From TrEMBL:
GO terms for cellular component: plasma membrane. The chain crosses the membrane at residues 20-42, 112-129, 141-160, 291-312. The lineage of its organism: Bacteria, Pseudomonadati, Pseudomonadota, Gammaproteobacteria, Vibrionales. This is TadC protein. It is found in: Cell membrane. The keyword tRNA-binding does not apply. Keywords: Cell membrane, Membrane, Transmembrane, Transmembrane helix.
Length: 321
């Protein structure tokens, strides 16, 4: 804090004015951070709850839609200032946000706004923390501040990657069960679209995320989008690239008029085998992964118990001489 005040004092003659400027900047950063957290929680709201609020009454729905519009306008106004200029980075970030379940158009702006606010908060906290260590030199203060800022700007990337990975894994684990239900519904006489709609409703108790994605495919099919196109968009949103074979099989079955039930049954067996092979691969890695906790946690304690008494006796023997 004193270092920043000393730097700003070169531009302002009044020391009290400099302190008030720094405190004002810290206050504005805290307010912006709180607003960003509120926007994030708002974007994370459950779509089912939004639907229930809409059904509850026209007045409430009107107020909710007006609130949505105000927030969207605010995010649109700051979009050009917070989002990066690189189109490649924007596309990659949007893809990760979709895989994590954030499909709103304002999700990208909210994500980068949170990154900027966290960076500012980390900068202020680092400066305040270094104030309690007056023995630190100016170079160390700058280095620690840059480390704090870099860490704060990198944390959202890690969190987003973990969220996307966890959601994709949950969808991948639940999809074989959905395929089995789809086979049963197709063999019961339902068409593919009707069977998919029924599966989307039944799978909700097991995987709400997969249920929402399949319902979205059915909704797009109702407005005229073909099933293969809707499934390709489903793969793009979820990151389940291994389902590309399913789209090809369904397209081929529609063109040739072959049995959809037999085709889906064969693919369900193949997809389940892939999941089993993935589980076996992860199980084979356990032995290697256990080396690190064994070496760092268990072996030191074992040597302390097994070799410790002998070392104590040797030391006592030499001390006695």
């Amino acid at each position: 804090m004193d270092y920043i005040i000393s730097v700003l004092s070169t531009y302002f003659d009044n020391a009290d004015l400099t302190k008030w400027i720094v405190l004002g900047f810290a206050f504005l950063s805290a307010v912006a951070f709180t607003a960003s957290i509120g926007i994030l929680i708002y974007n994370l709201s459950n779509p089912l709850k939004q639907r229930l609020h809409t059904i509850s009454g026209p007045d409430h729905a009107h107020r909710q839609s007006s609130g949505h519009k105000k927030i969207d306008k605010t995010l649109e106004s700051i979009e050009k200032y917070v989002t990066p200029k690189s189109k490649t980075e924007q596309i990659n970030t949007k893809q990760l946000l979709m895989h994590a379940g954030f499909e709103k158009t304002s999700a990208l702006t909210s994500y980068y706004a949170i990154k900027i606010i966290l960076t500012l908060i980390a900068l202020i906290c680092a400066v305040i923390a270094t104030n309690f260590f007056p023995e630190l030199t100016s170079q160390k203060v700058v280095v620690y501040t840059l480390l704090a800022v870099g860490t704060a700007s990198f944390i959202p990337n890690i969190v987003l990657s973990k969220l996307a990975e966890r959601r994709t894994k949950a969808l991948r684990n639940a999809f074989p069960d959905a395929l089995d239900l789809l086979v049963v519904a197709s063999e019961a006489g339902l068409g593919f679209q009707a069977a998919l709609n029924r599966v989307a409703k039944e799978i909700d108790s097991i995987s709400p995320e997969l249920s929402q994605e399949l319902q979205l495919v059915c909704q797009k099919a109702r407005i005229g989008i073909s099933i293969p196109v809707g499934l390709n968009q489903f793969i793009e949103r979820t990151g389940l690239s291994e389902l590309q074979g399913l789209v090809s099989i369904i397209t081929q079955s529609v063109k040739l008029g072959s049995s959809m039930g037999d085709t889906l049954r064969e693919y369900a067996v193949e997809f389940r085998d892939r999941r089993m092979q993935k589980a076996e691969e992860e199980a084979a890695k356990i032995g290697t992964k256990m080396i690190f906790p064994l070496v760092t946690c268990i072996w030191p304690g074992f040597f302390a118990v097994a070799v410790g008494p002998a070392i104590v006796k040797v030391l006592d023997m030499f001390a006695g001489r």
